[in-house]
Model the fold of this input.
Amino acid sequence: MAITLGALLEHDELDLRPLNDFSKTRETSITWAAITELLDPSEFLTGEEIVLTTGVRQKTTASQREFVRLLAENGVIALGYGTGLGHKNVPHSILKAAAEVNLPVFEVPYQTPFAAITKLIAEELNRFHLQQLQQLLNSHQRLTRTLLSSSLDSMLGELANMLGTDVAVSLYGTQIYGPDFRTGTWHQLPIATGMRDQGALYLAEPYEHDALVEYAQSLIGLELANKARLLESHRLGNGQILADLVAGTLDGSEAADRLRALGLDRQRNHVAILIQAVSAASVLPSLPLPPLLEHQVTSMIDDRLAMLLPQELAAQAVTLISEYLEKAGIQASIGYGGSYPGARGVRWSYFEALEALRHGERVNAPAKLSLTSLLLTAKDVPIHDLAAEALGPLQKFDRTNRGELVTTLREYFKLDGSVGAVAESLGLHRNTVRYRLQQITELSGYDPTVTGDRVQLWIALIALELA
Done:
């Protein structure tokens, strides 16, 4: 700490002489020494300094008492009164007023210049600041060494020890380290990683600002950013493996090898879970998962985050992920498939999860897998091109004429081809519906009343929805 009032008085070469009770303020640190001959120095005082004066302008008892009162009101910790110039001794009115407001007073003899006092205080402050900087540097090095030689958790534990308080860290509102910050009182600070991850550092109250915390924030942010980039790279690599399994181009020992590369046991049943972000899709490749799921197999495939979980963990995982995404403010749909063993089981569960996503709910349970969905997921079949060819003329007509041909076609399939039901649903006359169906036939080249053409248009509609 900086020099205290008691330590200043103990410097024999200054010959400072206490004139009243210093017992309560001896250990008070001095921030500075203000030299003044003003009758009212209030404007130039900041508190916790000593004031040095010769009192040459304090000609009356009233001015002396008022001077002491102003010092006390502005938080001055002691008054040093120079004698031998304006006053042979410290005026009695000064001492009496000081006693009334509990302001310590010491005499500064004529042979002791005020500059000697301010120099001593400045030197002690510089020494103290240098010591603080050295301690801060040593603390920086301790945190960095711990992080590099061990882990982020170890570094956070070291930080908690150094600060003498509990430390917690969250990402996307989910705790990743430390005690539960939702209980008790915590001081919250942001963690910047350069990514959209909403990180925060929590320090248990009571907390006093410490420069070490700012360095810790930077270290934590850097480490979390590195982890996010490694996670993204890992998921993209896993995505290549999963894409091969889903494509069905692997079989036998080669498929088993790919399962092992993903860290999956081919003898166990696994469930595929797909997360499709409505917005902020770029978050998914590096999105950290709740602690219970962070060691499970994840990958990126077709801009979706895919998870492959053991059967016994799947139900809990779906609920946990849904709550996690909601808390993080990420709009996304979750679809999951059934539980099957081996490479074919992974492929089948994946397609069921993809089919489930079409339901459009926040959480989508698996349903019976349709031939349509399998056809739509086939990479080597130009379904989307065929859909654009069939429905493109209808979409162009609707845009140009503010028509509703696509809507009418969708309702026609939804209501099992009943013209009357479509007319009632859309508030139209039956003849209007028939006329629109005729327009659809003329523009697309497919007649929705003919079974073969109906299948073509139905698949095109589904492909349009997925696109």
User: Anything to note?
Assistant: The chain has three domains: 5-122, 234-368, 383-466. The mean pLDDT is 86. The domain at 383-466 is CATH 1.10.10.2840 (Arc Repressor Mutant, subunit A).
